[in-house]
């Protein structure tokens, strides 16, 4: 006989991921997890071995669903690579469905908390940030190939600079800062040199 859906691994991870993302990993208690997952603590820890491992699995799940989905939708599928970059940045400014303010990013939020010191969590955060940085570098390569950016652009360094800007944007968005779209435009204009004008 099949187990009830609530014990399916993806259902558990999706519920835990949503809770960690919404409330912040450091603010989620064992009781919160029990309530959200409809499982008692011993069952949770039998399945995931430790809170650290559960958080790391949730971060990987978040990257697989949220981050990779946004990369595909806004970067890879963009007709204009630079428009896609801007859309990728500004997409994080919109609140989650049914919520008043932006949640920010589970990677960024967790990186700033105490759980980030746990080795498995730190490794999961790094994997997620590397995924974003690689996608930004790919988008820059497409923009250079399309003649939209100077071909002498240091793609690796610029992708790192974009990641730095993106992380700052996520923190500001989570804290309710305003006028962020104008800041996005200014950051992209400063970081992305157009090709030299034809003489």
Structural class, by secondary structure, is mainly alpha
Number of strands: 0
Q: Major sheet, described briefly?
A: none
Envelope shape:
elongated
The sequence of SSEs as H and E is HHHHHHHHH
Low-confidence segments, given as residue ranges, are 1-5
What is the tally of helical segments? 9
How much helicity do the residues have? 55-70%
Radius of gyration: 19 Å
Oligomeric form: single chain
Topology of helices and strands:
Blueprint: H1 9-23, H2 30-37, H3 41-48, H4 51-76, H5 81-90, H6 106-111, H7 119-145, H8 155-174, H9 180-191
Helix pairs in contact: 1-2, 1-4, 4-5, 4-7, 5-7, 7-8, 8-9
Structure, explained:
This protein has 199 residues and is mostly helical. The chain contains nine helices and no strands. α1 (9-23) crosses α2 and α7 (119-145) crosses α8 (155-174). The longest helix has 27 residues, at 119-145. The chain is elongated, with a radius of gyration of 19 Å. The relative contact order is 0.12.
Question: Which descriptors apply to this entry?
Answer:
disordered N terminus, elongated, 199 residues, mainly alpha, 9 helices
Brief sketch in words of this structure:
This protein is an all-alpha fold and 199 residues long.
């Amino acid at each position: 006989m099949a187990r009830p859906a609530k014990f399916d691994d993806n259902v558990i991870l999706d519920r835990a991921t949503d809770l960690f993302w919404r409330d912040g990993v450091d603010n989620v208690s064992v009781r919160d997890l029990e309530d959200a997952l409809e499982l008692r603590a011993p069952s949770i820890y039998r399945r995931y071995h430790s809170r650290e491992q559960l958080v790391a699995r949730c971060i990987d799940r978040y990257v697989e669903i949220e981050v990779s989905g946004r990369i595909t939708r806004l970067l890879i599928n963009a007709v204009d690579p630079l428009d896609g970059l801007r859309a990728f940045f500004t997409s994080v400014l919109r609140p989650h469905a049914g919520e008043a303010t932006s949640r920010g990013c589970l990677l960024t939020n967790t990186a700033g908390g105490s759980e980030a010191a746990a080795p498995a969590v730190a490794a999961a955060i790094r994997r997620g940030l590397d995924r974003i940085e690689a996608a930004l570098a790919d988008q820059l390569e497409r923009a250079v190939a399309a003649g939209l950016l100077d071909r002498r652009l240091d793609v690796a360094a610029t992708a790192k600079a974009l990641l730095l800007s993106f992380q700052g944007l996520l923190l500001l968005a989570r804290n309710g800062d305003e006028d962020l779209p104008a800041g996005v435009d200014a950051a992209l204009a400063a970081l992305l040199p157009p090709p030299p004008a034809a003489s």
